[in-house]
């Protein structure tokens, strides 16, 4: 159930649309970097504004340090790691062009490019009519829930709208707009097709594949889903935790060898990963701190993996 590059690209576009502001290229996973290339080609992203005063530390990824000029060129002073030469590439950041998204959605929904776009509130737009019903685009579903009165029953009523938002980062009630509007999740209902977006037919296979990918399937192996991409744990307030490909492999390897502690070398080889230690693929970059999407896997790792310090061996803390 690997996502195709185009699916990864629309997922990344959706994530960047939720954020609204620029994301540092250096904070993206390897798969996201490839997806970003697709978005660059589609002209969906624009360069973010780069700070010339400070930069995130290339070593710890935790602190920003001031940029200063030395004999060796531009340097960054991390409060923890000390000075190092600034890599200009680490300064690159990108933001999703909201107007690109609106333009492409209108294309996919056969909305005339001459129809007007109205911003209803910050982060929520009326982008035209599809099958005679209003189309509302919002950065997040909770914005729609919070401002429902204004959006659907304001000066211009928009009953039975199509509402398009990215898939929520945390679990939302299944049908928050029942009776008021039809909710379409951007990543599930639209596909990147060359330089355009295409509306997927919900009755075709494409959609059901996506749904399986997106829905947290039930715990099968201890707390893990059948394919190890989800972790179900009590105590995490944001619902099931979605893992990256590398994290999935580490947990699958730890699960397979759960009967005895293993060296990090053994686990990482079993996971077919180049990193040195299991924890390496669970680190959260500074830019993603406090984001449950990234913090969730790290929290799960801390709950589930025991490191026997003296021997440097790892095992899964799960009794079953
Ligand atoms: Zn540092």
Automatic annotation (TrEMBL):
Highest taxon of source: Bacteria
Name listed for the protein in its UniProt record: Uncharacterized protein
Species in which this protein is naturally found: Limnohabitans lacus
């Amino acid at each position: 159930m690997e996502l195709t590059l185009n699916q990864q690209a629309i997922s990344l576009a959706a994530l960047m649309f939720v954020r609204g502001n620029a994301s540092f290229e250096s904070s993206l996973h390897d798969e996201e970097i490839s997806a970003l290339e697709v978005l660059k080609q589609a002209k969906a992203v624009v360069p973010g504004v780069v700070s010339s005063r400070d930069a995130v530390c290339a070593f710890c990824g935790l602190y920003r340090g001031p940029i200063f000029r030395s004999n060796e060129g531009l340097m960054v002073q991390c409060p923890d790691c000390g000075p190092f030469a600034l890599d200009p590439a680490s300064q690159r950041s990108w933001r999703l062009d909201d107007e690109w998204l609106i333009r492409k959605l209108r294309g996919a929904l056969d909305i005339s490019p001459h129809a007007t776009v109205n911003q209803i509130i910050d982060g929520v737009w009326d982008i035209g009519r599809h099958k005679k019903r209003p189309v509302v685009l919002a950065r997040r579903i909770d914005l729609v829930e919070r401002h429902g009165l204004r959006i659907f029953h304001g000066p211009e009523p928009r009953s039975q709208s199509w509402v398009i938002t990215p898939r929520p980062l945390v679990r939302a009630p299944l049908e928050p707009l029942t009776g008021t509007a039809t909710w379409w999740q951007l990543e599930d209902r639209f596909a990147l097709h060359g330089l355009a977006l295409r509306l997927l037919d919900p009755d075709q296979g494409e959609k059901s594949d996506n749904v399986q990918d997106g829905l947290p399937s039930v715990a099968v192996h201890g707390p893990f889903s059948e394919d190890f991409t989800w972790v179900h744990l009590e105590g995490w307030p944001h619902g099931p935790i979605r893992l990256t490909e590398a994290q999935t492999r580490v947990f699958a390897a730890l699960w397979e060898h759960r009967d005895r502690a293993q060296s990090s070398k053994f686990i990482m080889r079993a996971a077919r990963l180049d990193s040195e230690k299991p924890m390496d693929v669970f680190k959260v970059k500074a830019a993603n701190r406090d984001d449950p999407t990234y913090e969730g896997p790290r929290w799960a790792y801390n709950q589930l993996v025991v490191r026997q310090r003296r021997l440097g061996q790892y095992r899964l803390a799960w009794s079953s």
